[in-house]
Each structure stands twice: as structure tokens, then as C-alpha cells.
Design brief:
alpha/beta, 8-stranded mixed beta sheet, 18% strand, globular
């Protein structure tokens, strides 16, 4: 056996053998004890949660005379919760797909006589609201009525989106002495350069081209003229659509709506006199009026959705796959701590393989709600979708949610038909990349890095120094190649010549309505319209029964336990950030910027 000289004092091993043996036994005992206690804790947690299983987890029979009850302030995520909590309680998260399906089916269900909904400070996105408005209008076309109650629209302000949703209903009720905070819409973007300068951190990023502004939050102190003009156009388009839709629903003119928005917040009495709402009263007053009119009992929308039976494997299937959140390499993940979705290319590719093997699947609806992400991961998913069409010969219809931009738009190119809501944020055809240089920070801390390189560009992505001249040239050539590849694929998929592409790309962001006008998308509509289009392209007969098969696939119990254990550390990170006075929302915005094809950290306040 090879011996090495030791710089440490010698130890009499023979003399201390017993002590070492005792220490080893004690250490192993502690490790095993922690492991056993950990397993017992998880099992105990499962038992306790099962005992506390809420009544709402049970499928409640739908009465013959029912009013569908919906609370739009609840969380309706694009992806299903697939964690240990859902396993033991039997309660999956309330997804947006489930909500839309329930309203659409209720329109033709003789047991459902009306909808009674509530909203105040909803977290629904703008495109989701437009999808819901369409669903409620379709429900009303069946001859049934829809009522909405609000304790107040927003808290003093920021109630525009809640009121926008409310205008799809037959009657809008508002609580006495409450306020309608329909104060309009604002776009907010943070700029961190001064903070980074203080701590000695230098962002060195490059983009293609002037409208690809995600990194401006780090590299600039304020908006450039190009950035400001782009957001101004985007904000005007979105605000104009909201005003137009409200005016149409309330049977008034757009000028009056804009004038009322500029006067808001409005009292309930002022809102009633202006024709923005229909009645003032408490929630109990609406319930009593509905009881008199219909004699029906209330049934919660998710209980109703859970009671709906699938047709089973005896009928054709339409696959429904979600691309939610930032696109990245590796597996998909949703943190139960931060409620943050990451779509991993590995998971998507595995799901696509399952779709290929399922003979019952006749079409795929790809729901995209993503600001972008890794170009490599987006490219992988795009190619897998192309292969799916070649191997299985089925149509792919894309349904865009609140965002389908940059890498999210790249993925959409794999579809045969792209549908967006009027205010979906899409486009952002461009690329960026770079690194955060910590050289100044190390100097402030008194840390000196020495390096030895074997290869001229070995340190190209090192955060300890800026790009050299040759590294900068190489990096920018790489961005040129990616941008050329991205725009070429858009040009081929959308049949747009490259000269015209230059007007649509360069990082520009479009609403769904503008995307259709420019040829980047094919039509306007939500989930129901996308499913109907998929049936049409699959040549399924009108009125033919079918079932939706949801992807990503459900995790195993072992995967759910591992997810719970791994997510525990996120609690401490979030707590430390909060104690340090650093908002988690700001942290997530910064963290997202490490990806190479994303939207700016834009916040829409409305």
C-alpha cells in the first residue's frame, strides 16, 4: 500500500481504536435514526393529512336543480398539481382546463340552471380572462343566466381585470359601500443596474436585436427609446381591447368607459349610476334572489367537474399537453413552495413518445403558457413535435395562454394551426446571452482569483472576468447562428419571406391579435376553440364523442415523495429572502433572466 507523509500530528491508532469504534457506532446510529424518523415523519404526515381530508375532496352528487358556483379568486393553474399532498387528499389542483370544461359542459347540462360567480382580486391572466369570457357568453347562449357578485373590484385600484371578467355576465352585483377600482392598466419593468454597480457585479450580455430587451433590466438604468416604444404599442393594444370589450358588453361607447376608468376608483353607487353594474346588495341577497328564481341548490364548480364521467377508452382521444412556465433542459418541475412551473424537455419528449404509442390519440392540443427559456430545450421540443407529426400523422393545434413568446413561440412552430387570445403576449423572436461578471465584487471582498488556461477561449463563460476581444467575437457569432436558425424556422413554418421576417422579429413582442394580422398565428380563440379545431383537422365527425388525455403524465408515489423532500429547502430560501427584505417575486424575475430566449421581466398591473 502506498504511504503518504502527513502534515498532521501522529495518532496512536491502537490506543484510540476503542474510541474510534464507539464514535463510528454512534455516528451510524444517528444516521439510521434520522433516516427512520424521516420516513416515520412522512408516513405520519400522510396519515394526518388523510384524516384532515376536506369535504371538498369528495365528489358531491349534482342535484337535479343546481346553480354552478365559481370563485374566480381561487388559483387555477395551467398544470395539474401532481405532488404528495394531492396523492393523500385525493384533491388535484383546480386547473384552468378543468374550469373551462366545466362551464362548457354545464351549458348543455339540464341540471345546471345558472351560474353564480364571485370575484374581487383574481390572479387570472389576461388571456385566461378572455377565454373565460367566451365560455360564459357561450353558456348564456344556451338560454341560461350568469350572475356575478363582487365585494369590491380590487383594493382601491387594480380591479380592472376582475371587472373585465365580470362584464361577460348577465348581472353584476356589488356590495354596498364597496369600490370599483377599475383604474386601467400599467406595465412595470425593474432596472437593477445601480444596485449591481454598488456591489461590483457587471452584466455582460448581447442580444439580437434592439427589441430583445430582457437583459436591459440588468445592463441599463432605464428604458431605451426602442424598449419604450415597444411597450407603449403593446400597452395601447391591450388597453384598447379591454375598453372595447367592456363597452360592447355593457352596451355603451368606448369614450365613456375610458372616462370612467380615469375617474376610478368609483363607489358602488357611482358604478350603478354609470351603468357599470346592475345591482347593489350583499351576497346573501343574490343567493336569495336565485333561490326564488330557480329553486336550485348550489354546487361548487370543482365538485361538478369531478363528477363528470369520461367516455373511457371506447372512444377516440385528443391529447392535451401543457408547456407551462420557463422551458429548460431536464425534467419538468413545479415547486409547491414557490408555485413556479418549469417545463423540462426530458419530460415533454417522454410524453410525446407515449402519445406516439397511443393508437387512440387522433390529435394533439398543445397549450403553451411560457415566456420562453433555453433555446436548446425549445429546439428539442420543436423537433420532437415535428417527428410526432411524421410518425403518427396527427394534427397539432397550439393554444396560446397569457404568454407564448421567445422559446414559447419557437415551440409553437411545431403546430399545424396556432390559436391565441387577442391579448396573448407572443413573438419576441430573438436571442440573447452573456454572463454576470463578478470581478468587481471579488475586489470589494478582497478575493483574488488566479487562473491558468489551456486553450484561448477556455474561460469564455467564467464569471471572474469579462469577455476578451476574441471571446466576445466568438460569443456574438454564436448568437448570430441561433438568431438565423430561429428566424429561418419561423419563415419556413409560417411561410413568411426573410425580408418580411425582419419587420416581425428582432425581439419584437406582439399581442395575439397582432400576431394573427402579421401571420405569426392563424386564429383567435381559447381552449375550446383549439380542441374544436383539432377535431376538425383530425377529420372527426361533428358531434362525435371523444375524450381528452392530459399530459404531463401523473407521477408515481415515489416521485411525489422525492419531490416533497427536495422542495423542503425552498422554504428556507424563501424565508431568508423575506427576512433580508428581498421580495421573492423580484428574486424570481432576476433568476429567470439566466435563460437565453425570454421575455423581459414585465409586470402587468391592472
Amino acid at each position: 500500500m502506498t504511504e503518504f507523509d502527513s502534515p498532521f500530528p501522529s495518532v496512536d491508532i491502537k490506543k484510540n481504536r476503542k474510541k474510534i469504534l464507539v464514535a463510528r457506532i454512534l455516528l451510524k446510529s444517528l444516521i439510521y435514526s434520522f433516516a427512520i424518523f424521516g420516513i416515520l415523519f412522512i408516513l405520519l404526515l400522510i396519515v394526518v393529512i388523510s384524516m384532515l381530508k376536506p369535504q371538498s375532496a369528495q365528489i358531491v352528487p349534482v342535484p337535479d336543480q343546481a346553480v354552478l358556483s365559481i370563485n374566480f379568486d381561487d388559483n387555477y393553474s395551467e398544470t395539474r398539481s401532481d405532488d404528495l399532498l394531492a396523492e393523500v387528499t385525493g384533491v388535484r389542483s383546480q386547473t384552468f382546463l378543468d374550469l373551462i370544461k366545466a362551464i362548457n359542459i354545464a351549458a348543455g347540462d339540464d341540471r345546471i340552471k345558472a351560474i353564480s360567480a364571485t370575484v374581487s382580486n383574481t390572479g387570472l391572466g389576461l388571456a385566461q380572462i378572455q377565454d373565460l369570457r367566451d365560455a360564459v357568453f357561450q353558456f348564456r347562449k344556451s338560454g341560461k343566466k350568469a350572475y356575478l357578485f363582487s365585494g369590491s373590484f380590487g383594493s382601491f385600484g387594480q380591479g380592472t381585470r376582475a371587472y373585465y371578467l365580470a362584464t361577460a355576465f348577465d348581472e353584476i352585483w356589488m356590495q354596498p359601500n364597496a369600490e370599483a377600482g377599475i383604474t386601467g392598466l400599467a406595465l412595470e419593468v425593474p432596472f437593477f443596474k445601480k444596485v449591481l454597480d454598488k456591489i461590483g457585479v457587471t452584466p455582460e450580455f448581447y442580444q439580437r436585436y434592439e427589441y430583445k430587451t430582457a437583459m436591459a433590466s440588468l445592463t441599463e438604468e432605464k428604458m431605451s427609446d426602442a424598449y419604450r416604444s415597444e411597450l407603449n404599442r403593446l400597452g395601447k393594444d391591450i388597453f384598447g381591447r379591454i375598453v372595447s370589450d367592456i363597452a360592447s358588453a355593457r352596451k355603451t361607447d368606448k369614450q365613456k368607459v375610458e372616462r370612467l376608468i380615469n375617474q376610478a376608483p368609483l363607489s358602488a353607487k357611482e358604478a350603478l349610476e354609470a351603468g357599470l353594474i346592475d345591482k347593489i346588495g350583499f351576497r346573501q341577497d343574490l343567493a336569495a334572489a336565485l333561490k326564488t328564481a330557480t329553486g336550485a341548490e348550489y354546487v361548487d364548480v370543482m365538485s361538478y367537474a369531478a363528477s363528470l364521467k369520461s367516455f373511457g377508452k371506447s372512444v377516440p382521444a385528443v391529447a392535451f399537453m401543457t408547456i407551462d412556465g420557463v422551458i429548460a433542459e431536464g425534467p419538468s418541475y413545479r415547486s409547491p413552495v414557490r408555485d413556479e412551473a418549469i417545463t423540462g424537455a426530458d419530460t415533454v419528449l417522454a410524453d410525446i413518445e407515449q402519445i406516439v404509442e397511443d393508437d387512440d390519440v387522433k390529435a394533439l392540443v398543445l397549450r403553451i403558457n411560457s415566456p420562453g427559456g433555453s433555446y436548446g430545450a425549445s429546439n428539442e421540443i420543436w423537433y420532437a413535435l415535428k417527428q410526432l407529426k411524421l410518425q403518427k400523422k396527427i394534427p397539432i393545434v397550439v393554444s396560446m395562454g397569457d404568454y407564448a413568446a421567445s422559446g414559447g413561440y419557437f415551440v409553437a412552430l411545431g403546430g399545424d394551426y396556432i390559436m391565441a387570445e387577442p391579448s396573448t403576449i407572443t413573438g419576441s423572436i430573438g436571442v440573447l446571452g452573456g454572463k454576470m461578471v463578478l470581478e468587481g465584487l471579488w475586489k470589494k471582498l478582497g478575493v483574488n482569483w488566479e487562473r491558468m488556461s489551456f486553450g484561448e477561449n477556455a474561460g469564455i463563460l467564467s464569471s471572474n472576468q469579462k469577455f476578451s476581444k476574441s471571446e466576445k467575437n466568438i460569443f456574438n457569432k454564436s448568437l448570430d447562428r441561433v438568431y438565423e436558425d430561429f428566424t429561418l424556422k419561423v419563415s419556413e413554418a409560417r411561410k413568411i419571406n426573410l425580408k418580411e421576417m425582419d419587420k416581425l422579429a428582432r425581439g419584437r413582442v406582439w399581442t395575439g391579435e397582432s400576431a394573427v394580422e402579421n401571420g405569426l398565428a392563424d386564429g383567435l380563440g381559447g381552449i375550446e376553440a383549439a380542441v374544436a379545431k383539432a377535431q376538425e383537422l383530425a377529420e372527426m365527425k361533428p358531434g362525435e364523442k371523444f375524450r381528452l388525455v392530459y399530459y404531463p403524465r401523473e407521477k408515481s408515489l415515489q416521485e411525489k415523495i422525492r419531490l416533497l423532500i427536495n422542495s423542503g429547502k425552498g422554504i428556507y430560501v424563501k424565508q431568508m429572502l423575506s427576512e433580508a427584505g428581498f421580495e421573492t417575486e423580484t428574486y424570481e424575475g432576476l433568476r429567470r433572466l439566466r435563460f437565453d430566449a425570454v421575455l423581459p421581466p414585465l409586470k402587468i398591473v391592472f
